Amino acid sequence: MLLCDIGNTTASFLDDQKFHSISIEQFLQYEPTEKIYYINVNPNLEDKLKQNPLYVNLAPYFNFDTIYKNLGTDRIAACYTIEDGVVVDAGSAITVDIISNSIHLGGFILPGIESYKKSFINISSCLKCEFNTQISFDAFPQRTADALSYGVFKSIYLLIKDSAYNKKLYFTGGDGQFLANFFDYAIYDKFLIFRGMKKAVCENFKL
Description:
alpha/beta, 7 helices
């Protein structure tokens, strides 16, 4: 079973626990030789995907209980194996979704960490700094790099903490492991989206 999660900047593949990613530019040149079950949030690629019968769009096959309008398929897949908890996908954007008794209660979206960096540079070149990933929330910062780090990481932390209601936290995405370190009760799962995709395939296709 070959799975593909297509985002705005990369396409990630998983086949029998073998994982690799390619850029969208590389994906545009990619020609599959076997059936690929995919999810896609990149509207610029829909024509390419529809033209090749080896690409199977999983979006219609998720049986997901939500009233959230236009919920991204990547968010659905990330939540699909979770019965109760808060799912945080920390990539280009940070999405947070709350699940209770297998029902999606809603969620919200934040900029990704790299987007925060770019926004500060747009304000002033003086704010071009590497974030301090060891920042402590116990004292107020005394230098600009720490002030930026504190503002970004603590705001993300508090929003997620406020939404958790003592539920388990499930993190995935490129910055997921880093953000999970702020919480004592968090689980990081690199393959969370793929687990949801695999569940949808197993429910709907005879393989």
